[in-house]
Design goal:
five-stranded parallel sheet; alpha/beta; globular; 5 strands
């Protein structure tokens, strides 16, 4: 008689499907290669952040000059969390990754009378949102609307920027920046 093979339960099957879909939505699949990842993320501080951050830690604003590996570290953290998810309802499985320009321009690319832009809806509704490259986008109310709605609904937001904290505060105002990290998140400024 052959060995019995346990088939996945419907919940296990759904978890597997959601995990695979979430991994496909995240950029930089190469962060799984340790050597390539360490060359791209030279900062020990960023590698530690990628190894430890969870949504329970709150929102996160990662700042530093171009090429330090901010985006790769955030992608690595989310890949780790997606793989560690034990329930198909885990919020990291519904992470939305975008950039500040896509949000800022979304309404301009949506027809009049078509309702709210799909990108804005996704950014507001995602349990976890990553806004890459905060700062160089055109100033537009859309980004402010997204951050305000996420703050109101206590949804976790991660953002990266090549600008300093002082520059971001001058551009958006301190209250808008707090909306990313409130109530108990962190700003991580990485030096080369």
């Amino acid at each position: 008689m052959g060995e019995l093979i346990a088939l996945p339960t419907p919940d296990e099957h759904l978890l597997g499907e959601r995990r695979e879909a979430a991994l496909r939505r995240l950029p930089m699949p190469w962060v799984d290669d340790a050597a390539t990842y360490e060359r791209a993320v030279s900062s020990r501080q960023l590698r530690q952040l990628a190894a430890r951050w969870t949504p329970a830690d709150g929102g996160l604003l990662v700042l530093g000059s171009t090429g330090l590996g901010k985006t790769a570290a955030v992608a690595c953290a989310l890949r780790r969390l997606v793989r560690a998810a034990t329930n198909w309802r885990d919020p990291t499985l519904r992470t939305h990754w975008t950039n500040a320009s896509a949000i800022a321009l979304a309404r301009r690319h949506t027809g009049l009378g078509a309702g709210e832009a799909a990108e804005i809806r996704r950014a507001i509704e995602a349990p976890v949102l990553v806004v890459d490259e905060l700062g160089p986008e055109p100033l537009d109310a859309a980004l402010h609307d997204v951050l305000d709605a996420r703050y109101t609904h206590q949804r976790v937001t991660l953002a990266t920027s090549g600008m300093s904290l002082a520059e971001l505060r001058e551009r958006y105002g301190a209250a808008r920046i707090r909306r990313i990290t409130a109530p108990h998140g962190a700003v991580v400024e990485v030096r080369p």
